[in-house]
Design a protein that fits this description.
11 helices, about 200 residues, mainly alpha, single chain
Length: about 200
């Protein structure tokens, strides 16, 4: 990535340069070097603003928001994710908008604001359904199932879990299937269906 960055700078490819900084930021985040990750993502953000790349700018805000969330700087994360949401709405990028709501829902869940969590994940589900993005629908259903389980609303949790399980199975997302099976196992255990709970845990 650093070799690519040098060449992008040499040939004056600003968009490519921004992409390199963004990708380096993601790599640094993955290995826990958060200061360097922020530094590179912010460089990417500056360039996307300079060249008027609204989609790239929104993507930078999202990546920075997720990073700040991961280090528990929740207010900063919220501010960045909301900026991304505003831009994705402006440019009509519905899939990006759904992802923004997903990320905001994850953030609100981390700080225990469950009403806002539900609102965001339901928005993500609605948009994913409208644009027929099945992985978004499945993920939103999985997360809604987990929060309704934690709130003791077992009927709603069961409905969302079953829908998520069907889609994850259909699209071949085995990790998604495993995660929903764990959630459903906890649900069956909570309502006293111990045999079914055991089956779901073993499947997971």
């Amino acid at each position: 990535l650093e070799k690519s960055l040098v060449i992008k700078k040499e040939i004056g490819d600003k968009s490519g340069e921004a992409d390199c900084y963004g990708n380096l930021g993601i790599v640094y985040q993955a290995v826990g070097k958060y200061k360097k990750a922020i530094e590179h993502l912010e460089k990417s953000l500056v360039i996307t603003k300079e060249i008027g790349d609204k989609c790239g700018e929104a993507h930078c805000y999202t990546n920075l928001g997720i990073l700040y969330h991961s280090v528990a700087e929740y207010e900063r994360a919220k501010e960045l994710l909301e900026k991304s949401l505003v831009i994705t709405k402006e440019i009509g990028k519905k899939n990006g908008e759904a992802h923004c709501y997903t990320n905001l829902g994850n953030l609100y869940h981390s700080v225990g604001e469950y009403d806002k969590t539900l609102y965001c994940w339901e928005k993500s589900l609605k948009i994913g359904t409208e644009i027929e993005t099945r992985d978004t629908v499945a993920y939103s259903c999985k997360m809604l199932g987990s929060i309704f389980l934690s709130l003791g609303k077992y009927g709603k949790a069961n409905g969302y879990n079953k829908k998520a399980l069907f889609i994850f199975t259909d699209i071949g997302d085995r990790e998604g299937v495993a995660e929903v099976c764990i959630n459903q196992g906890h649900l069956e255990n909570a309502v006293g269906n111990l045999i079914k709970a055991k089956e779901y845990f073993e499947k997971a």
